[in-house]
Amino acid sequence: MSTNTKKRGLSPAAPNVDPTAAAAAAAAAIDKPAKKPRKKAVTAKSLGLTKDEFESIKAAPIKRSLKDIVKKLAKQVDEDWHDGYEDQAETKGEWFEAIQEPLQAVLDIGVGKKTALLQCNEVLKIVSDSFYDLLACPCRCDTEDELAEMDRSFELQLPWGETDYTATSGYQQDVWSYVWVALLRVHSNLDNVDEGLLLQCIKDAHDNMSGARMIKLPGYLYDQSDKQYDIDTYEQRDGKNAPSGTKLAHYVNDRASEWKSLPTTKKVHRMRRAIDRRFDGTPERRTRDYHLHDSDDDDSYGGGYGYGGGGYGRGRRDCIIM
Question: Which helix (H) or strand (E) covers residue 87, if one does?
């Protein structure tokens, strides 16, 4: 600033500012959306659970555990599609027994304690998705038929009664469908339920119940000890002390247009490729020595079967022992 300017008491010259740019900056500042508040972390305490209870409904460990079993089956099929059917059957039974713990956790926490709807819904989605992933393994013996024939079972303790629910491998999709109906009923009856979340959960349940033989939404929570209970009929009734299904029926029927318009979260699992290693694949992994013989005329060496027999493993639905 010059001495003359100080003496006269004049202000220094204002900087050269573009009024248009200044106005645009001011408008941008006004239009700029406010930062979204951070979502509160979901903790065991916030859900009213113990640490162990909270751990039991964490999605990642359940998903990893079931995925490991599916990978084991896929590996068995890849190594010996034709002769490895007995080991494959054992792995399928192992998978069925592995779903008991996560399903019981949903009953204990989502139904019994009436909390953690989002987390319990995710657990049920993982169980269902794992089943369809299992079916995508192109086993020599049909997976659903084999589960039915092995007739494995386990007990689920129901929070509302003295009786247990007997889950059988022949009705595997009805098992998690039953638990899903119980979860949705309990949370439909809560005054403070998040309706947006509840409607998405109904959509998820509907999509994942498509293969159930006895349960369709809104469903029944039947009592297997009831003398009138018949596993071969869909005409069921609720067991004693089962959570009321009136409000769930309202959401399912009267608000169907809302939940049906929601996006599906159900994945589609494409059938894996199978190789019949009696004839196909690299020589060192073959389960027969047909490739060591040059004669295509001698059936005793497998020539009658021909080479390129990988088609045996693609979607075969029978279990004929050849």
Answer: helix 85-98
